[in-house]
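Same chain as my last thread, 190 residues:
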Amino acid sequence: MLSGVTALLLAGCSGTGSPTAGGAAASASAQPTAAVASSTVASPAAAPPTPEATPVSAKVVLWYGTGGVDKLDALIHSVAEVQAQHDAGRGVIDLNQASQDLRGASAYSPIPDQDTQTAWSTALQHLGSGMDAVLSVSILNPGPTMAPEQAKETETRGWAEFGTGVAGLKDVDSRLQAFGCLPHGNPWDV
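reply #2:
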């Protein structure tokens, strides 16, 4: 059997204006129920809950899973290949694939985490500037030539800039992995 207080609380919660205890109307205790019911209605807790924003980490994982991984892995693989050829002392290096992958990565939607996006944009800028400088002095460049000393200096600056971009790309890869975005294999292997 329910006690009078329990019946009042249940009645107040159910919205029935007339609580009963043991089948009989509790006329004397109806007043506190009305006070409980009216305070519940006036409470700010009765307002509908505000939806929570999607966490940044979930947005980053979504970005990665809907094409970001493809852009990142392709770019990592092509620049790692170029870097390996340069480190091996190869005189002529084809930058076409790296340039195409850089354009594809640059055109893709931004990473939803501001710090990671800034690191991504910076890495892409360094890669692009480095490749432009190297191409400007390449024997494959049909444009005007520079004096040999100036060309060597430009090429050295270009490779240094490219190396800074590669380091930045490694940082972005680490940042994305910290969000739980794991690559398919190791794109750095060439």
